[in-house]
Specification:
The complex is a heterodimer of chains A (about 550) and B (about 300).
Chain A: H1 2-43, H2 45-65, E1 75-80, H3 85-96, E2 100-103, H4 107-116, E3 121-125, E4 138-142, H5 147-217, H6 229-245, H7 250-318, H8 324-328, H9 344-374, H10 377-383, H11 388-414, H12 420-424, H13 426-450, H14 454-470, H15 483-489, H16 493-506, H17 515-544
Parallel strand pairs in A: 1-2, 1-3
Antiparallel strand pairs in A: 3-4
Helix pairs in contact in A: 1-11, 2-9, 2-11, 3-5, 5-7, 6-7, 9-11, 9-13, 9-14, 9-16, 11-13, 13-14, 13-16, 13-17, 16-17
Chain B: E1 9-18, E2 21-31, E3 36-41, H1 47-54, E4 62-67, E5 70-71, E6 83-86, H2 98-108, H3 113-126, H4 142-154, E7 160-164, H5 172-187, E8 191-195, H6 199-205, E9 208-213, E10 216-221, H7 223-230, E11 234-240, H8 243-250, E12 259-263, E13 266-271, H9 274-287, E14 292-298, H10 302-309
Parallel strand pairs in B: 3-8, 3-9, 6-7, 7-8
Antiparallel strand pairs in B: 1-2, 1-4, 4-5, 9-10, 11-13, 11-14, 12-13
Helix pairs in contact in B: 2-3, 4-5
The chains are: A mainly alpha (about 550), B alpha/beta (about 300).
């Protein structure tokens, strides 16, 4: 048993020695292949030029081309049947915004100019635009085939026009607000008069009532009977008879009778006047009687008007916002970038980085494989006792080292136009960059082995690069493609890389927050590593024929 | 064909086909150690395929290739170490120097650094590449390129060297260079298998020749076997003052003459019995006091034999 155990241990040790030896031998072979690849690349001037200068050129161009946040040299064609001060103002506003304005006499010429590329956009102003104008409309005619430019120009012009439109609205609203304030003052002033009127009306009503009441007390409809004139007349007759008995002179009696008759006549006349006065008083009383409810009604109406005006005043007072700018834009919007975008290049750097990485990795790896295939020496490689995987890993390592060097150059050059925070987050980006480079290199190796001629392989590499770009945010937003494709695009290495690098470089995400994307990249990398091996086997089978 | 002696390499009814197209059919051969073997045959007869099968680059569709009695398909890849191969085109990296190429392939064969240095030195001397160590492959002459290719095939000190058209596209001087290199390699104790169209070389170099025709092994043997077995006629060319008389006598002479013709005072006689014809000619000259000014005897070349055999 003891010797059996020893034998087993010896066997294990031998196995370990063999495996260790095999690994060491393969590592030596790997280094050998990598060194050979580098020697060949360096000695081939054109390859070295493309490999070293290519990415430098790309990043340099990117830096120059996208180092601003605005669009330049945009020509705007404008046309109006009748230019007004407002339209001229808008045009001068656009001119101040660094746009070239081309006034066109014809609407069709303006639109056709966009089609012909003579100008980038055509603005048709409605005739005699202005405050109080019937139709104040500006129509944009754009070439949607230049989607990004159209959006950029429309956004800029739109914001300039919106400002002009806001200014106009502000002006008009201010007039309304001022009128309201004026009305408020007038109403407030007239309300005191109404108060006086109301009070006077009440007072008058009271006085009428009092007058009516006082007048009602008087009964002027008296006759001689009411004044007991018969009694006076009887007494006078008695007195006359008595005086006749006393032998008084008739003259005196006559005088008395005359006076009495005059008195009676005067009294009757007075009674007639009183009767007339009574009738008049009745009329006045009636008038006063009818006046009182009218006055009461008037008073009520005055109160109603007063309350209404008070309500209006309260309404005006209750308007919290009287600032015309707040009325014009009750909800003010402002777009704040989640990151400070100093230039286009800064914001798009992650995209450029993935783009350069993808181009260089796929092209380089496929070129290395194609160079190897076109060299007759690869035949001798295959007859050596070297595992196929060693050659694949050799190509992978060569490409990875070159890509890493190129990325260093790209980031170094990029540092001149990148913000500090973007560069500061670069350390976290090393891991996903390594994954992305590995994936793209294995894709390149697959392409190199699967296609027989260098021309078709290059076409295939370009097709892959183009396809990944088309199915990404590079040209159109992912959201604009059909939903059934969107899910698929989530696995696009370019999209994954762009997402990861944006999260890390621009938003400062940590590695733990990009775990899902990195997981997908790992799976894709392993798939394409296996694919590389299988495509190499397929290629070998092909040359065996 | 029956294998007569056990060889370091043996093929037993080996066939190779790509789909319906057969490129090699039931080829059997045995290659004993330390000899040079030549494989001749028309283009497309399967020569290169045969070499690819021997180095294990191809798998036979049927039959077995044995190396030292072991099935080549079943032995580990390390056995490939025993084979060196130089293809028709130069199988080295033109952008690497002579030394770098040798070191690169040496390392791929898993040879240690010191051994590679020693081996490189030996090969450079043997193949007359000394002084060109640092010259890149693309700056070598054609002959040097071929020798570098052979050096790369020998860097791991294989027992069997397979050379596919080693002298193709080389001028006579360079060809001679390569042939002398091959002789040196044989002298170093290697078994060499050569395919070539240039049959004259085969004749000079090879111990045994295999003739492939229509994907089959049509014949094999020493150059002498081919020479004697197939050579029926000898051409005798002579010049004398009485050439006209000789020509007319030859028309009715008792010795076996296939044909005779005269051109520019030269008489050319084709015969299967050259000794008798020579005796007759010499006696004729003596009798007529004539002097033979020129005499040459030539057997038909392997090229002509090859043409006849592969008709």
């Amino acid at each position: 048993m003891r010797s059996g155990g020893k034998l087993f241990l010896n066997n294990i040790l031998v196995w370990f020695a063999l495996i260790f030896g095999s690994i060491l031998r393969n590592i030596n072979r790997l280094f050998n292949i990598v060194i050979k690849n580098f020697r060949i690349l360096i000695r081939s001037k054109s390859s070295a030029l493309i490999i070293v200068l290519g990415p430098l050129l790309i990043i340099g161009l990117i830096g120059i081309a996208f180092s601003t946040t605005t669009v330049h040299d945009v020509i705007i064609g404008v046309h109006s049947g009748e230019y007004s001060d407002l339209s001229e103002n808008i045009i001068s506003e656009l001119e101040d915004g660094n746009y070239f304005i081309k006034k066109l006499d014809d609407r069709t010429a303006c639109i056709d100019g966009v089609k012909a590329g003579d100008h980038n956009i055509c603005l048709i102003f409605s005739e005699a635009m202005g405050v109080g104008g019937e139709v104040n409309r500006i129509t944009f005619h754009v070439d949607y085939t230049r989607v990004n430019l159209v959006y950029a120009i429309m956004d800029d012009i739109g914001s300039k026009l919106a400002k002009t439109s806001d200014d106009l609205s502000l002006e008009m609203t201010q007039i309304i607000v001022d009128e309201l304030e004026n009305a408020k003052g007038v109403i407030a002033g007239k309300l005191s008069i109404l108060n006086v009127v109301s009070e006077d009306s009440l007072d008058l009503q009271e006085k009428v009532a009092t007058g009516y009441e006082n007048l009602s007390k008087y009964n002027l409809t008296k006759d001689l009977g009411d004044l007991r004139y018969n009694v006076v007349e009887g007494d006078f007759d008695s007195l006359s008879d008595y005086l006749n008995g006393q032998n008084l002179s008739t003259a005196r009696l006559d005088s008395l009778n005359t006076s009495l008759a005059e008195f009676k006549e005067n009294l009757e006349k007075h009674l007639d006047d009183t009767s007339a006065a009574s009738r008049h008083m009745d009329t006045v009383t009636e008038t006063l009687e009818s006046l009182s409810p009218s006055l009461a009604k008037n008073s009520v109406k005055v109160d109603q008007v007063k309350r209404a005006l008070e309500g209006v005043l309260l309404g005006i007072d209750s308007i919290e916002v009287k600032d015309s700018s707040e009325i014009v834009s009750p909800i003010s919007t402002s777009v704040q970038p989640v990151v400070t975008e100093d230039t286009h290049a800064n914001g798009m750097f992650p995209t450029f980085l993935v783009l350069v990485l993808m181009f260089v990795s796929i092209m380089l790896a496929s070129t290395l494989v194609l160079n190897e295939k076109s060299a007759n020496a690869h035949f001798r490689n295959f007859v050596t006792p070297t595992n196929n995987m060693v050659f694949i890993i050799g190509t992978y390592l060569t490409s990875l080292i070159i890509v890493a060097l190129q990325l260093l150059v790209v980031i170094g050059v990029g540092a001149t136009f990148l913000s500090g925070s973007t560069l500061g987050n670069m350390v976290n980006a090393i891991y996903p960059l390594f994954l992305l480079a590995s994936l793209f290199i294995f894709i390149g190796i697959c392409v190199g082995y699967l296609f027989k001629s260098s021309e078709t392989a290059m076409l295939a590499a370009l097709f892959i690069v183009s396809a990944t770009m088309f199915f990404s945010n590079m040209i159109l937003p992912i959201e604009s493609v059909p939903s059934y494709l969107q899910g698929f695009m989530g696995y696009n290495p370019f999209v994954l890389g762009e997402t990861i690098l944006k999260k890390i470089l621009l938003f400062g995400f940590g590695l733990s927050e990009i775990g899902r994307e990195c997981g997908i990249l790992w799976i894709l990398t392993i798939v394409f590593l296996i694919g590389s091996y299988l495509s190499m086997r397929l290629y070998k089978r092909g040359i065996n024929r | 064909m029956v294998m007569q002696e056990r060889g370091v390499l043996e093929l037993n009814k080996v066939s190779k086909s790509y789909g319906e197209r057969a490129v090699l059919s039931e080829v059997s051969m045995s290659l004993p150690h330390n000899k040079i073997y030549g494989i001749i045959g028309k283009s497309g007869c399967g020569k290169t395929t045969l070499l690819n099968l021997l180095i294990g680059f191809l798998q036979p569709s049927r039959g077995t290739v044995y190396y030292q009695g072991k099935d080549l398909n079943k032995v580990s890849k390390e056995v490939r170490m025993k084979f060196g191969f130089a293809s028709q085109s130069y199988s080295f990296y033109p952008k690497l120097s002579v030394k770098e190429n040798l070191q690169y392939f040496g390392k791929l064969y898993g040879i240690g650094k010191v051994d590679i240095e020693d081996r490189t030195y030996q090969l450079l001397n043997m193949l007359r590449l000394s002084g060109e160590e640092n010259t890149t492959g693309d700056n070598l002459s054609s002959g040097m390129k071929k020798r570098l290719d052979i050096a790369c095939a020998l860097i791991h000190d294989p027992e069997v060297l397979l050379l596919d058209e080693p002298t193709a596209d080389l001028d006579p001087a360079l060809r001679s260079d390569v042939l002398s290199a091959i002789k040196k390699i044989r002298a170093a104790g290697k078994t060499i298998l050569i395919t070539t169209h240039l049959l004259g070389e085969i004749e000079i170099l090879c111990d045994r020749i295999f003739l492939l025709h229509h994907q089959r092994l049509k014949d094999m043997g020493s150059p002498d076997h081919f020479d004697k077995g197939y050579t029926k006629e000898v051409k005798i060319k002579l010049k004398s003052r009485s050439y006209a008389s000789l020509y007319s006598v030859l028309q009715s002479c008792p010795v076996d003459i296939e044909s005779a013709n005269v051109e520019d005072r030269y008489v050319t006689i084709t015969t299967k019995t050259p000794e008798q014809v020579m005796q007759y000619v010499m006696s004729f000259a003596q009798k007529h006091d004539d002097k033979i000014e020129h005499l040459s005897v030539s057997r038909p070349s392997l090229d002509r034999l090859f043409m006849e055999l592969t008709k």
